[in-house]
């Protein structure tokens, strides 16, 4: 797609992430953009969006509420940052399926350690997903 202006992209990302986690995002927002800016220098970037059609969208499965995909390219630094996010309805997964997805995100070793340690964090993540569902 045609490169969007960085302020438009920042605002679009902020709106999407705020819709998913509400007020919790306000504390994260400055840290998120400071980290991105530190790595890629946003003011020097060309930004491209990837908007797949429904048939080729790798994240277009059942339960996907929205997603975004941006490439931040800094020619001077010779760096690319791929910034992607998606929101998934908590109602689209059973508890065991949500646990499997978390295992994939954490890596098998990390997930096993969390299970052995009696970590209950995965349950709270699933609950947060349900809360972020907009009807």
Explain this structure.
The chain starts with 5 loop residues before the first helix and ends with a helix. The protein is 48% helix and 19% strand. It is globular. The longest helix has 17 residues, at 24-40. It folds into two domains: 6-88, Repressor of RNA polymerase III transcription  Maf1 (Protein Transport Mog1p, Chain A, 3-Layer(aba) Sandwich), CATH 3.40.1000.50; 91-131, no CATH class. Helix 1 (6-21) runs antiparallel to helix 2 and helix 3 packs across helix 4 (108-116). A three-stranded antiparallel β-sheet has the order 1-2-3, with helices on one face. The chain has helices at 6-21, 24-40, 95-106, 108-116, 121-131; strands at residues 46-49, 64-74, 79-88. With 135 residues, it is an alpha+beta fold. Mean pLDDT is 72; it is low at 98-115 and 119-135. It has five helices and three strands.
Topology of helices and strands:
Blueprint: H1 6-21, H2 24-40, E1 46-49, E2 64-74, E3 79-88, H3 95-106, H4 108-116, H5 121-131
Antiparallel strand pairs: 1-2, 2-3
Helix pairs in contact: 1-2, 3-4
Question: Which sequence of strands runs across the widest sheet?
Answer: 1-2-3
Q: Termini separation (Å)?
A: 29 Å
- How many E-type strands? 3
Mean pLDDT value: 72
Please outline the major beta sheet.
3 strands, antiparallel
Percentage of residues assigned to helices: 40-55%
| Overall radius of gyration | 17 Å
Principal-axes geometry comes out as: globular
| Count of helical stretches | 5
CATH class of the largest domain: Alpha Beta
Count of separate structural domains:
2
CATH topology of the largest domain, by name, is Protein Transport Mog1p, Chain A
CATH architecture assignment of the largest domain: 3-Layer(aba) Sandwich
Share of residues in strands = 15-25%
Secondary-structure element sequence?
A: HHEEEHHH
CATH superfamily of the largest domain: Repressor of RNA polymerase III transcription  Maf1
Q: What class would the helix/strand composition place it in?
A: alpha+beta
Protein name: Repressor of RNA polymerase III transcription MAF1 homolog
InterPro entries: Maf1, Maf1_sf
Pfam family, one: Maf1
Family: Belongs to the MAF1 family.
């Amino acid at each position: 797609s045609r490169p969007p202006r960085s302020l438009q992209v920042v605002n679009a990302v902020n709106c999407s992430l705020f819709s998913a986690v509400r007020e919790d995002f306000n504390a994260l927002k400055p840290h998120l953009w400071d980290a991105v800016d530190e790595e890629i220098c946003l003011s020097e970037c060309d930004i491209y969006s990837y908007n797949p059609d429904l048939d080729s969208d790798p994240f277009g499965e059942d339960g996907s509420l929205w997603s975004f995909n941006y490439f931040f390219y800094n020619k001077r630094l010779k760096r690319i940052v791929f910034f992607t996010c998606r929101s998934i309805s908590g109602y689209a997964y059973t508890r065991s399926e949500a646990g499997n997805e978390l295992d994939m995100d954490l890596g098998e070793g990390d997930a096993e350690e969390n299970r052995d340690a009696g970590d209950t964090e995965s349950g709270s993540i699933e609950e947060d997903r349900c809360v972020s569902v907009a009807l």
